[in-house]
């Protein structure tokens, strides 16, 4: 009776399946004193746990009881009125700190009680995350719910011996069970999982561009993260691969990167080199680029020039320094390639194809240490289209046509961890629906994040060209 089994008992029943044989366990009589001691211990532990998790609520209840026992109800009412006025003053003085210490804990408690705890047993049973042990059903423990402005984070203690894969495989079931749009499963520590359930979608609408930022080359502001915070993409010291179907919004990322680097380019600490074999996207604002190539021959020559610069810097840095610092004499060079498949898989000239592939391989393996970064965009992420995709540390998956393509772009298991790029919505009547929405997997960060790039209009591109013309060659 006193032995602890994994998880929390859901229902004291036995299986009714005819083919299943369930043996009744041997019942050993337990002295009443042991039962009383155990239940007292569990009660005290539960009270301590409640005070630790909900200190403000417990303090209010305890204080109210003490005042009522020591004085009249008018004093209790006056104390509560003082608390209300103090809370109002706190909200007006610092809404952020009030939300952190009072508002969101109250929301978390309310959603724990009225949303998740009420549905927990049913959802766990239906999704198959519970287990039958000796004729009894046990489920994982719902430990804590924390809320913020955009999501609920549910901390769960898994059953002993349970794998994270079981939870990631049932993320869609959990989302529907809690009436949510989606559910993402993360692992904060061994034996635990955290369910991230968004309550709204700040990325549903088109994101407007921000004013042109100050001079910086390390990371540029692209748009918004799903939590409403700004999304900044690292471009210096890395390579970026952008993959997405037609109309998915690859141009928003390309022009977002260009827009973020323009002040640095004007200051001379960055250069923008464009390879535009389609002659549609980057050609519209070619004046902002230091170098521009469109034909296969021009693209091969420009890539080989980047390789030459890379080798020249490597020769100077050898034995002197291990990383690159953008300066006027050694600026960061961003090699931006729109639709790289036109230069690799779809290139009919075998000689040019080999030159381009060799230059890209050299740049993506050696370039970032000396300040040469490659930002490549493509539609088809298959291996035979771009065999170098694993050489890009940072990858972005916009809307994709097939579920298998998600792992091709972001790496194995990315879709199981919540990168549902194949489910990004689209609309024939409204091209802005889902455009620029993407999942990003950064280097050394296996958990993908959902973002949306700001939409850079044609007029804004022309304004950038007029204000930051570099005189491309």
CATH class group of the largest domain: Alpha Beta
Q: Main β-sheet: number of strands, strand sense, barrel status? A: 10 strands, mixed
Count the helices. How many? 11
> What would you give as the CATH superfamily of the largest domain?
P-loop containing nucleotide triphosphate hydrolases
Give the strand order, joined by hyphens, for the main sheet. 9-8-17-16-15-10-14-13-11-12
Radius of gyration: 29 Å
Into which percent range does the helicity of residues fall? Answer: 25-40%
Shape: elongated
Protein name: Cell division protein FtsK
Domain FtsK: 228-407
Keywords: ATP-binding, Cell cycle, Cell division, Membrane, Nucleotide-binding, Transmembrane, Transmembrane helix
Transmembrane segments: 21-41, 47-68, 73-92
Structure description:
By secondary structure, the chain is α/β, with parallel strands linked by helices. The protein folds into 2 domains: 8-15 and 31-53 and 94-198, no CATH class; 219-467, Rossmann fold, CATH 3.40.50. Helix content is 38%, strand content 18%. It contains 11 helices and 17 strands. The chain has helices spanning 32-53, 55-70, 73-93, 95-127, 164-169, 171-177, 250-267, 296-317, 350-366, 404-410, 458-467; strands spanning 8-11, 131-133, 136-139, 141-147, 151-157, 184-186, 192-198, 219-225, 230-234, 240-243, 270-275, 291-293, 332-337, 372-378, 394-397, 437-441, 449-453. The strands form 3 sheets. The chain has a 10-stranded mixed beta sheet with strand order 9-8-17-16-15-10-14-13-11-12, covered by helices on one side. Strand 16 and strand 17 (449-453) form a beta hairpin. The longest helix is centred in the N-terminal third of the chain and has 33 residues, at 95-127. It starts with 7 loop residues before the first strand and ends in a 6-residue tail after the last helix. This is Cell division protein FtsK. Pfam families: FtsK_SpoIIIE. Keywords: ATP-binding, Cell cycle, Cell division, Membrane, Nucleotide-binding, Transmembrane, Transmembrane helix.
């Amino acid at each position: 009776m006193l032995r602890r089994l994994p998880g929390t008992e859901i229902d004291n029943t036995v299986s009714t399946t005819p083919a299943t044989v369930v043996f009744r366990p041997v019942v050993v009589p337990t002295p009443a004193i042991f039962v009383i001691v155990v239940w007292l211990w569990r009660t005290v532990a539960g009270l301590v746990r409640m005070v630790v998790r909900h200190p403000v609520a417990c303090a209010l209840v305890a204080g109210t009881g003490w005042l009522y026992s020591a004085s009249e109800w008018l004093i209790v009412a006056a104390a509560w009125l003082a608390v209300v006025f103090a809370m109002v003053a706190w909200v007006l003085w610092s809404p952020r700190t009030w939300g952190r210490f009072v508002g969101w804990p109250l929301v978390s408690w309310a959603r724990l009680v009225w949303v998740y705890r009420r549905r927990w047993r049913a959802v766990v049973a239906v999704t198959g995350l519970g287990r039958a042990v000796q004729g009894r059903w046990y489920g994982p423990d719902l430990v804590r719910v924390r809320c913020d402005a955009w999501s609920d984070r549910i901390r769960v203690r898994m059953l002993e011996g349970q794998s994270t894969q079981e939870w990631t495989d049932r993320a869609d079931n959990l989302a529907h069970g809690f009436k949510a749009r989606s559910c993402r499963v993360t692992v904060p520590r061994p034996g635990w999982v955290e369910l991230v359930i968004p309550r709204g979608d700040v990325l549903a609408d088109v994101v407007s561009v921000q004013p042109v930022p100050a001079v910086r080359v390390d990371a540029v502001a692209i748009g918004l993260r799903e939590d409403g915070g700004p999304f900044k993409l690292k471009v210096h010291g890395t390579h970026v691969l952008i993959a997405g179907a037609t109309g998915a919004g690859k141009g928003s990322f390309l022009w977002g990167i260009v827009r973020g680097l323009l002040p640095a380019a004007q200051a001379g600490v960055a250069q923008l080199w464009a390879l535009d074999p389609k002659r549609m996207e980057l050609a519209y604002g070619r004046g902002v680029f230091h170098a521009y190539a469109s034909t296969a021959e021009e693209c091969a020559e420009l890539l080989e020039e980047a390789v030459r610069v890379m080798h020249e810097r490597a020769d100077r840095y050898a034995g002197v320094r291990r990383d690159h610092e953008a300066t006027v004499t050694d600026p960061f060079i961003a090699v931006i390639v729109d639709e790289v498949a036109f230069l690799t898989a779809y290139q009919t000239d075998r000689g040019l194809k080999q030159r381009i592939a060799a230059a890209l391989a050299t740049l993506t393996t050696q370039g970032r240490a000396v300040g040469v970064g490659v930002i490549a965009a493509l539609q088809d992420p298959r291996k035979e289209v771009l065999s170098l995709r694993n050489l890009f540390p940072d990858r972005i998956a916009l809307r994709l046509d097939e579920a298998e393509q998600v792992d091709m772009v972001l790496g194995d298991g990315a879709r199981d961890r919540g990168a549902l790029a194949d489910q990004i919505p689209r609309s024939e009547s409204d091209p802005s629906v889902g455009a620029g929405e993407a999942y990003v997997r950064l280097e050394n960060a296996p958990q993908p994040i959902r973002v949306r790039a700001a939409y850079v209009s044609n007029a804004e591109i022309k304004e950038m060209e007029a204000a930051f013309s570099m005189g491309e060659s």
